[in-house]
Amino acid sequence: MITAGMSARILLVEDDANIRRFVRAALQDEGFEVFEAETCKRALIEASTRQPDLAIVDLGLPDDDGKQFIARVRGWSALPVVVLSAREREEEKVAALDAGADDYLVKPFGVPELLARVRAQLRRRAQVDASSGSSTIVFGDIAVDLATHEVRRRGEIVHLTPIEFRLLAALIRGHGRVLTHRQLLHEVWGPGYVERAHYLRVHMANLRHKLEDDPAQPQHLVTELQVGYRLTGL
Amino acid sequence: MSATRPDPDRLLADITAEKRRAARGKLKIFFGACPGVGKTYAMLQALEQLRSEGKRVLVGVAETHGRSETARLLQDLPQLPLREVEYRGRTLREFDLDAALAASPDLIAVDELAHSNIEGSRHRKRWQDVEELLAAGTDVHSTLNVQHLESLNDVVGRITGVHVRETVPDHVFDQADDVVVVDLPADELLKRLAEGKVYLPDAAQRAREHFFRKGNLIALRELALRRAADRVDAQMNDYRRTRAIEAVWPARERLLVGLAGTDDDERLVRDAARLARKLEADWIAAHVDVTQERRGKHARGRIARTLELAASLGAETATLPGTDVADALVACARARNVNRLLLGHKPRSPWRFWHRSIADRIGRRHPDLDLIVIAPGARQRAPQIPRERGAPRIKWLPYLWSTLACFAATAVASVLLRVFDLANVVMLFLLTVVLVALRLGRGPGAWAAFLAVACFDFFFVPPKLSMSVGDTQYIFTFVLMLGVALITGQLTARLRHEARVAAARERRAVMLARLSRELAGALVTEQIAEIALRDFGSGFHAKMALALPDAQDRVRAVAHNTIEIDESIAQWVYDHAQAAGAGTGTLSAAKARYIPLKAPMRVRGVLALEFDSAEPLREPEEQRLLEACCGQLALALERVHYVEVAQNTLVQIEGERMRNTLLSAMSHDLRTPLTTILGAAQAANAQLGDHAVAPLLGSIIEQAQAMLRLIENLLDMARLQSRGVELNRQWQSLEEIVGSALRELREPLRAHPLKVDVPPNLPLLEVDALLIERVLVNLLENAAKHTPAGTPIDVRARNESGNVVIEIDDAGPGLPNIAPEKLFDPFERGHKESSVAGIGLGLALARRIIEAHGGKIEARPRSPRGASFIVTLPAPAQPQLEIA
Are the Cβ atoms of A197 and B740 closer than 8 angstroms? Predict the structure, then answer.
């Protein structure tokens, strides 16, 4: 949908006018087209009429929960959603991600961070649209063939257990989205395992040690503490 | 089907008993028929065996009796030094209970369970020492001869003719976890004796020819084996009950033993105990407290002792009020569903030939009750108890008054004789006797009766002023007069006694009622103490003190009138929930008696009573009154305690709610403007590019970020300070937390070469990941902030004996010149007024978080330069991973 030269359209759902003002300024400075909404109801109307390429949604809205907006939008659109949340609202953030949000930022957030996330989500969207043909995914010096289950690092084959491969494949399918523990457990182990986060810790650690140069400072398999994991560098 | 199911209540009781047993140490008794069979040797051998298996064993006390084999065995075992006690000018050596408790070995050997401790020891008997060791969780091995078992004590005495005073209650034996019978055939033992292998002390030489006869030895051996077999039987039944193997659940038999207060009672109780065990019956020992019978202190003491003995043999004891022994016993039997009644045989008194024995009367009136009458024992010469000092001193004053009354009556009669006939004047003397008996009691009443007859004879019956009697008619008058006077005197005296008993009962009832009324109104502990002080002192003729526990369960005297409370005894009583001090079996040398105040939930305090009289509470009623009063006191203390708890909880809930409201308001109201300040400055900065104002915006951004961190720290600190903070504990990998912290601090750490070593085999931690990340962020940020650019920072983690240790090292200027632990106090900063931002809240927060996780954090200087911060977190048992 986004083509070169055409500016992306961003829907900003936020009730605080001050925050709206500087976010709009920063986004417009980057060349994005910005639409604002103060309430959940207004945001749904804007989302359907303006056809935005990305939505930035504050979770604490005056009329309804931002989660409701995400759930409703997910009914008919795959548009990337970046959530803004307060720090101590752990569960809310995870619930929003479970409901279909793609990424989150904790308030107070830095503008460079916000812009980086927005760009990453837009790029991801473009890749998902483009990469439907090839079965080989490359990030950093790692190449993963989803068809043959072959993983190579700097050209050398890396042996993954079936679980580790399923985990990696799930992260690849997420395309840079933050995947919550619950989503990953559900996808890799099945619905009976969604409460056993320690499974993830053990297998993610194995995966990091096989694929990362410094597992304590990973470049691709990034931990979002208490929330989940994401694959960066795609 | 229901008949085959075990009684759930009993099963529950078994389970609780099992639980209690699990926490207790295990008692193993080496049981023998007589001295010299090798119990001590067997015990020490078992100890040696366990020691070679790696157990920490200790010999608390062992008697070798000069036997060389035993002494040799003892040499190799670790021994506890004996305690030396000065007693009547001699130095005696005694088992050291406190040292044994302090040493707390896995297993301790304590020889001769039946031993009586030297006066002044904590417990009177060694088996009580052993009980305390078991309660503390130490396993104990001990030895015991059959003659020392309470219920068999007199049987053995009758067999051998040697009576031993040192006994062990049967329940100790029955509840032992293991009993090993050390058996030696009689011939073998006699041979060993003849060869001198069994050495007996001089004192025992005399008993030797009596005791070590072959017949005796065979009988004793049989007795020991049978008693041990009985115990196995009981265990088998227990096992059946818990496993519901067979439906043998007959209604339990119940025996009632009537105690008459004679010398035979003790034997009766022992027989009853044996019978009850054979029948597996519950049994009740009852004494009928007949109101008309006045008993001396001595008799009452004997009854109390017999009841105590019965209780120690497992009986339920009761003192029944009533006027007729037979009726009271039957009423009790009916009420408690008793099917057998045990009585001692009382030979009929030749003086009261019309009197039928109690057994006879019960047998006639209630033919449905099984009666067992125990024959009187061979008249053992009961140790003559010396007359109680100063007990039956005759009071002369009432007799004087009685005499005066008779003379007055004589004087009045001589006046009246002028008007009335002699036969009528006699009535005046009768009246006098009745009045005297009523006012002054039985003795003076009888004295008055004789004196009245004498006066009447001497002054009025012709020939006057002589004791001789002219008319035989008057003999009849004398006899009649004496008879009437004595009977009325007896009746009135009985009336008086009953009135006194009733008054005493009334006094007790009033005291209890007043105490409970006053305690019901008490709202704080101080009031309760004051009430107790007032009522107990007057009610029991004693000085008292009250000790209550503080938050650390240390008891402290809170109220007393003029007695010194020994807090160490009070503490013992509080911890063990057992009475101690004067008049009890524990620490009986103390001046006061210490009684635990047991409430339904727990012991609430200790009451110390120092009685004015030497032998207090001989009356069972007094004892019961004291128990009831202590119960009331304990209940009141518990009630007040829970009122306080409820109030505190309310206040706490209110405070918590306020704090949470404040915190969430603060976190929202402080962060929202900062979000705008930071965001707007950054957005503006991006647009300005190289404009001259850009550095100004840069400092706004920098300061806003510093302020943000401070606010985060403050809020976290406040949240953690509120009590009962819930950590969001989950299984976490340290590698991920470190990774997350390093990612957050990418910018500040860029100036330092970073070395990270988190080995892959670290265990998972069950922690609140965000809080631990906060700790690492604070420590790393400190390292970055306080060290010059270019110096390296190392992050290392390792597994160290069940803990995960994280170490953050820098090569900066090192720690400031203050005590390392002070670094972690809030608002403590290394270098005063330094230009580096931050007010030293980071380390305080770090410590709080780590301590909330049960870990610790410390700072150490490094050589040659730099500092290292070390965080230790406990690594719990790892969660299970299924192979999916």
Answer: no
What integer pLDDT is reported at residue B174 of this predicted model?
83
Q: Which chain B residues have a beta carbon less than 8 Å from that of A108?
A: 671, 674-675, 678-679, 708
Q: Helical H runs in B176-264?
A: 186-194, 202-211, 214-243
**Confidence label for A23 from pLDDT (cuts 50, 70 and 90):** very high
Residue B503 has what pLDDT?
85
* Per-residue model confidence as pLDDT tens digits over B539-568: 777 888 888 888 888 888 877 767 778 888
Q: Is B731 on the interface with A (CB under 8 A)?
A: yes
pLDDT of residue B354: 60
Q: How far is B874 from chain A (nearest CA, A)?
A: 17
Element (H, E) at B140: strand B139-145
Residue of A nearest to B673 (CA): A18
Condensed to tens digits (0 to 9), the pLDDT of residues B38-92 reads 888 888 888 888 888 888 888 888 887 777 778 888 888 888 888 888 777 777 8
> Domain A9-129, what fold?
Rossmann fold (3.40.50)
Closest CA to B623 of B382, B402, B305, B870: B305
Alpha helix ranges (H) inside B417-472: 422-440, 442-455
Contact A201 B679 (CB under 8 A): no
B402 CB-contact burial (10 Å; exposed 0-12 / middle 13-18 / buried 19+): buried
Q: Which position has the higher pLDDT, B500 or A83?
A: A83
Determine the Cα–Cα distance for residues B496 and B732; give it in Å rounded to an integer. Answer: 84
What fold does the segment set A133-231 form as a domain?
Answer: Arc Repressor Mutant, subunit A (1.10.10)
- SS3 per residue for B360-377: HHHHHHCCCCEEEEECCC
Distances (CA, A) of A183 to A100, A167, A174, A190: 10, 11, 10, 10
DSSP letter, residue B760: T
Q: What percent of chain B clears pLDDT 90, i.e. is strictly above it? A: 5
Interface of B with A in 710-729 (CB under 8 A): 712, 728
Chain A nearest CA to B684, separation (Å): 8
pLDDT at B380 over 50: no
Q: Domains of chain B, with CATH numbers?
A: 8-243 (3.40.50.300), 254-374 (3.40.50.620), 403-498 (no CATH), 726-874 (3.30.565.10)
What is the least distance, in Å, from the CA of B864 to any CA of chain A?
Answer: 28
Q: How is chain A split into domains, by residue range?
A: 9-129, 133-231
Contact A202 B736 (CB under 8 A): no
Q: Which of A127, A126, A128, A158 is nearest to A143 (CA)?
A: A158
* Site of tokens 């040797």: B41
pLDDT top residue among B140 and B623: B140
pLDDT in tens, B407-458: 999 999 888 888 888 878 888 888 888 888 778 777 888 888 888 888 888 8
Q: How far is B881 from chain A (nearest CA, A)?
A: 7
What pLDDT score was predicted for residue A168? 92
Q: Rounded CA gap, A71 and A73, in Å?
A: 6
**Given an 8 Å threshold on Cβ–Cβ distance, is A18 in contact with B732?**
no
Rounded to the nearest integer, the mean pLDDT of chain B is 80
Which residue in A18, A109, A201 is closest to B732 by CB distance? A201
Q: Considering only CB atoms, which chain A residues are within 8 Å of B674? A: 108
Residues from chain B that touch A87, judged by Cβ atoms under 8 A, are 667, 671, 712
Look up residue B820 and give its DSSP letter.
G
Average the pLDDT over B119-132 and give the result. Answer: 86
- Interface check for B419 against chain A (CB to CB < 8 A): the answer is no
Q: Do B675 and A189 touch (CB under 8 A)?
A: no
Q: B393 and chain A: CB distance < 8 Å anywhere? A: no
Hey, is the C-beta of B689 within 8 angstroms of any chain A C-beta?
A: no
CB distance B683–A25 less than 8 Å?
yes
